[in-house]
Predict the structure.
Amino acid sequence: MLNCPARRSAIESLAIRLRNIGSSYKTFMNATLKRNLQRIVALLCSAALVAWFVHSGKADNLAVLMARVQPLQLAGLIGAFVITYLLRAGRVFDEFRVDTPVTFPGILRLTLVHNAMVNVVPFRGGEAAFPILLSRWFGVPTTRAVAALLWLRLQDAFVVLALAAFVWPGLYLKRMTASVSPT
């Protein structure tokens, strides 16, 4: 009965499946271990920065400044901060939702990582994170991602110019008086 070809092939296929399960389990465990180690290193670095900040005596100044802030003001600032990130992610999501299998939570994550990289990496090197992450996470061609980044930055520039036109001291009033005054 052991020499039966059907039984032998079934045992061989079971052995192959068990070997593949072991291999994928090891790969999964290695990836999980690596991810957990990365998180632990990030938490340790954050804890070290907080400890340095507290030990340097600058935390006292921050405590004095934070005591002046009203809870409603703080809630409003945090709410505005969250809304800006949601709007930014919505703009990117709107750019890619038609031709790319993106989800809003995925794009929100991309936006948060991209903004963190822009703030942390020197010489605006974090800008390179947007096309790279968009290509890796969603399969968007790099040229399309770079073009989208340029388009988004052009939109940002126009918004900043429009805000500057209304905020610049006297510019708005001069324009309004020039259009109203008779010549």
Notes: The chain has a mean pLDDT of 84.
